[in-house]
């Protein structure tokens, strides 16, 4: 009977994301929320059902420990680092990371210090607002903060990101262009618009179609094999570290080796590596949300936590704008890099269309790749710094 329960629960955790992805493709409202937010909602409901078996607790603890170490290198294998516009990218990275650091430190002193595990939350949002969900999940694996707090971090992020986009699309882009003394970019040509719209449609298309074909299975097998080698090497080094340092060294090595592997052309061109890693993040999101217990939630701390995150996003945007202006970076590059850092690269094409500026597409994607690659290290260092304030 216990074996049957385990099999049913494993099927639930592994197949629910596939159903959610399909539903998001069919219903625009769910698509706007995104798979992760939908999975959080499902997980919170499932985890608080009174009839769920005790065996689920074992899987709830096991899934994050398996999913995150596998997802990190998979999602980093496809990173591409362009040699073009290197000077501009360096300015954007220095400005973006510095802006988040300053905003998080001030926000921590104002709000974060009143939040349970505030320093760890500061580290997670530092990685999230320079990288993305992958970095937040990896830092959660390092810090092991309470699941309720982590779920709130991601839930608040959805709300804050929505407000951030409303600001940019309503008047933010025009405001920054005027402040920078730049004329509005000319309208995109029809061919340029079609190209960017194609990029957006490719991002919305089912990334898992063709995975079960002969070529797809070969790519999947290669991805899994290389990932297991990276995991084994990282674990082998981490296991000899002093007590308490295993997870820190393990996650940071996974990130470093994942980026290093991306410089190998064959690894970088693996078709499904990013999407396989993203699916593991979906499973992780469902498992983490199912562990949340809001019966003893401190609402006052929740207000401070949301204030902390809101401050970090909008103040870092303002500081990033000032730094970029001082370094003579154009307004559009500043905005697109901010989107890549705060919301991750998948949102870049949408904003590129909104700005009528095709050139920002490559600039934004390159900044986002740097965020993915450095976000875990940056988030850990920020947490260590905040604990000393």
Description of the structure:
- The chain has 17 helices and no strands.
- The protein has one domain.
- The protein has helices at 2-26, 28-33, 35-47, 56-76, 86-110, 118-128, 133-143, 147-179, 190-204, 214-238, 246-261, 265-268, 273-290, 299-326, 331-343, 348-354, 360-386.
By DSSP, the count of extended strands is 0
Question: Order of SSEs, N→C?
Answer: HHHHHHHHHHHHHHHHH
Q: Percent of residues in helical segments? A: over 70%
Summed up, the helix count is 17
Mean pLDDT: 85
Terminal Cα separation, in Å?
A: 52 Å
Poorly predicted parts: none
CA radius of gyration: 21 Å
**How would a textbook summarize the main sheet?**
none
Note the overall shape.
globular
What fraction of residues sit in β-strands? under 5%
Number of domains: 1
Structural class: mainly alpha
Top keywords for this entry?
mainly alpha, 17 helices, globular
Annotate the secondary structure layout:
Layout: H1 2-26, H2 28-33, H3 35-47, H4 56-76, H5 86-110, H6 118-128, H7 133-143, H8 147-179, H9 190-204, H10 214-238, H11 246-261, H12 265-268, H13 273-290, H14 299-326, H15 331-343, H16 348-354, H17 360-386
């Amino acid at each position: 009977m216990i074996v049957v329960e385990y099999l049913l629960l494993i099927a639930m955790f592994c197949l629910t994301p596939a159903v959610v992805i399909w539903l998001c493709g069919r219903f625009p409202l769910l698509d706007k929320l995104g798979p992760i937010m939908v999975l959080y909602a499902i997980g919170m409901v499932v985890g608080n059902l009174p009839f769920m078996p005790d065996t689920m607790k074992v899987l709830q603890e096991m899934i994050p420990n398996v999913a995150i170490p596998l997802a990190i290198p998979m999602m980093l294998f496809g990173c591409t680092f362009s040699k073009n516009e290197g000077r501009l990218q360096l300015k954007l990275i220095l400005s973006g990371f510095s802006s988040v650091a300053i905003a998080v430190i001030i926000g921590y002193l104002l709000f974060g210090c009143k939040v349970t595990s505030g320093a760890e939350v500061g580290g997670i949002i530092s990685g999230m607002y320079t990288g993305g969900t992958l970095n937040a999940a990896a830092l959660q694996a390092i810090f092991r903060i309470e699941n309720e707090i982590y779920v709130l971090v991601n839930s608040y992020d959805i709300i804050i990101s929505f407000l951030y986009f409303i600001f940019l699309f309503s008047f933010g882009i025009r405001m920054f262009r005027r402040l920078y003394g730049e004329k509005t970019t000319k309208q995109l040509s029809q061919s340029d618009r079609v190209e960017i719209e194609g990029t957006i449609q490719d991002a919305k298309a089912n990334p898992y179609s063709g995975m079960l074909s002969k070529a797809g299975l070969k790519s999947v097998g290669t991805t899994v094999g290389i990932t297991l080698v990276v995991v084994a090497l990282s674990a082998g080094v981490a296991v000899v570290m002093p007590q308490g340092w295993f997870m820190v060294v393990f996650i940071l090595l996974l990130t470093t080796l994942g980026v290093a592997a991306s410089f190998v052309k064959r690894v970088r061109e693996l078709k499904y590596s990013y999407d396989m890693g993203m699916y593991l993040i979906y499973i992780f999101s469902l498992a983490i949300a199912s562990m949340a217990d809001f019966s003893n939630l401190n609402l006052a701390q929740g207000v401070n936590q949301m204030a902390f995150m809101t401050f970090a996003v909008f103040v870092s945007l303002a500081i990033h704008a000032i730094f970029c202006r001082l370094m003579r970076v154009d307004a559009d590059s500043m905005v697109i890099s901010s989107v890549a850092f705060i919301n991750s690269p998948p949102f870049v094409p949408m904003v590129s269309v909104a700005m009528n500026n095709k050139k920002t597409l490559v600039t934004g994607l390159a900044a986002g790749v740097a965020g993915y690659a450095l976000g875990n290290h940056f988030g850990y260092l920020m947490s260590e710094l905040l604990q000393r304030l």
